[in-house]
Amino acid sequence: LPPLRVLGQVLSTYIVAEGPEGLYLIDQHAAHERVVYERLTAQRSGRSADTQLLLEPLTVELSPAEDALLATVLSELGETGFGIEHFGDRTYLVRSVPAALKDLDAAEVLHQLLQQLTGGNRSDLLSRIAVTVACHAAVRAGLQLSAEEMRQLIQQLERCAQPRSCPHGRPTAVRFDNAQLERLFGRRA
User: Fold this and answer.
1) How many other C-beta atoms are found inside a 10 Å radius of the C-beta of residue 164?
2) Amino acid 159: pLDDT
3) In the predicted model, what is the mean pLDDT of the chain?
4) Across-strand partners of 10?
5) How far apart are CA 39 and CA 74, in angstroms?
6) What's the pLDDT tens digit per position in 100-111?
7) Beta carbons within 8 Å of 85's beta carbon, 6+ residues apart
8) pLDDT per residue over 129-182, tens digit each?
9) How many Å apart are CA 29 and CA 140, to the nearest integer?
10) Strand, helix or coil at 159?
11) How far apart are CA 183 and CA 187, in angstroms?
12) How far is CA 110 from CA 38, 64, 73, 131, in A?
């Protein structure tokens, strides 16, 4: 992305910015998802997941299917910052979570994560975990951001290796080039 200047926010969902090539609408959730995903994958490749220890371990009861799946993905979850210990039958203690999830309900995220990891290819398991964590950690559509928060998010997105799409493949930004804007207002044929 070129350097962008934040102009404002529309529908508490899209950041409006100006660049040398025109006007940009940035989906704040998709953009933040990309930023968090690339941060998680960079940490994983450096073997130093950024974790948040919980003040008190969280007890989580799993269904039989979740319990069976967790046994197969426990190591990969540990690599991404989850500290999970078996506590009896289908009960587990969550001692830490990826730092990106520090303000979220860890039990709910773990249940949803296990649902999303059901099936699929084992070879891309770490990537699927990072995609899911990034999605949960990203700012939501409908959240009013301050001017500074929008500027920081755009600057972080500009530094991403793949800033044009979120990890799910949705676009992070739509550009209206100068010629399109002029045509919209009848200044150009």
Assistant:
1) 13
2) 95
3) 91
4) 14
5) 21
6) 888 888 889 899
7) 57, 92, 93, 95
8) 999 999 999 999 999 999 999 999 999 999 999 999 999 999 999 999 999 999
9) 5
10) coil
11) 6
12) 20, 14, 12, 13
**Helix H or strand E segment including 155:** helix 147-158
> Cβ distance 163 to 143 under 8 Å?
no
* Number of CB atoms found within 10 A of residue 133's CB: 26
Q: Reduced to 3 states, what is the DSSP secondary structure of residue 92?
A: strand
Nearby residues of 100 by Cβ (< 8 Å), 6 or more positions away: 36, 39, 40, 50, 133, 134, 137
Distance of CA 146 to the CA centre of its chain: 19
- Side-chain half-sphere CA neighbours of 21 within 13 A: 9
